[in-house]
Design a protein that fits this description.
The structure holds 2 protein chains of 2 kinds. By secondary structure, chain A is mainly β. Helix content of chain A is about 0%, strand content about 50%. Chain A contains no helices and 11 strands. In chain A, strands 2, 4, 5, 6, 9, 10 and 11 form a 7-stranded mixed sheet that branches. A 4-stranded antiparallel sheet of chain A has the order 1-3-8-7, with no helix packed on it. Chain A starts with a strand and ends with a strand. By secondary structure, chain B is an all-beta fold. In chain B, the strands form 3 sheets. In chain B, strands 2, 5, 6, 10, 11 and 12 form a 6-stranded mixed sheet that branches. A 4-stranded antiparallel sheet of chain B has the order 3-9-8-7, with no helix packed on it. Chain B has a two-stranded antiparallel sheet with strand order 1-4. Classes of the chains: A mainly beta, B mainly beta. Chains A and B meet through strand 5, strand 9 and strand 10 of A and strand 5 and strand 6 of B.
């Protein structure tokens, strides 16, 4: 079974802090994704990566950056945390077979609160 | 751009009731379609998928048929259980890449 592990289930940080959310997958997947989940808005894509050291902006990249130094690890960085970044963050990975047929596998999420 | 529209929720049903959750989409080309489920306190899990028109995806008693003519992918189950209580997301995948576009999700509660 694919395992996507997010480093923290719950995290509390202060406004202005630099925050790192870590995600590791164990299935040698090429593609990795970061989403945020908010009530009434569903999941929104922040950034994604198709390969090591490669990144692309999703639908809501403002205020975030990412890092992918190794294939199995994809980090989301909040450069200067703000209260409107309080949310559930979900990491996912997928294989790059026929792209549209490959399901994404999700971690359990990190519930981040910015005070 | 691509979009997915799900019916408004939440939905509350009695055990053994019939379930339909509506999902329609807008996309260029021929996307693949997915239903994901999120149980309380967990991440999303793939429930079922369909990759071309008229395909039927099925899993755990749930079914959905890819209807190109109505751009729909409605989720159905003949007899729901309390353990089906969860949030359900409809999603589509662009053929050109691996990105998913999600609907807003709908919460299903099944009472004994």
């Amino acid at each position: 079974d694919v395992k996507v592990t997010q480093s923290s289930r719950y995290l509390v940080k202060r406004t202005g802090e630099k925050v790192f959310l870590e995600c590791v997958q164990d299935m040698d997947h090429e593609n990795m994704f970061w989403y945020r989940q908010d009530p009434g808005l569903g999941l929104r894509l922040i950034y994604f990566s198709y390969d090591v050291k490669m990144k692309e902006k999703g639908d809501i990249p403002e205020g975030y950056s990412v890092s992918r130094e190794k294939k199995e690890r994809f980090s989301l960085i909040l450069e200067s945390a703000s209260t409107n970044q309080t949310s559930m963050y979900l990491c996912a990975s997928s294989s790059s077979g026929a792209p549209s047929n490959q399901p994404q596998h999700f971690g359990d999420g990190t519930r981040l609160s910015i005070l | 751009g691509d979009s997915v529209t799900q019916m408004e929720g939440p939905v509350t049903l009695s055990e053994e009731a019939f379930l339909t959750i509506n999902c329609t989409y807008t996309a260029t080309g021929y996307p693949s379609l997915f239903w994901y489920v999120q149980y309380p306190g967990e991440g999303l899990q793939l429930l079922l998928k369909a990759t071309k028109a008229d395909d039927k995806g099925s899993n755990k008693g749930f079914e959905a048929t890819y209807r190109k003519e109505t751009t729909s992918f409605h989720l159905e189950k003949g007899s729901v259980q309390v353990s089906d209580s969860a949030v359900y997301f409809c999603a589509l995948s662009d053929q050109a890449n691996s990105k998913l576009t999600f609907g807003k999700g709908i919460t299903l509660s099944v009472r004994p």
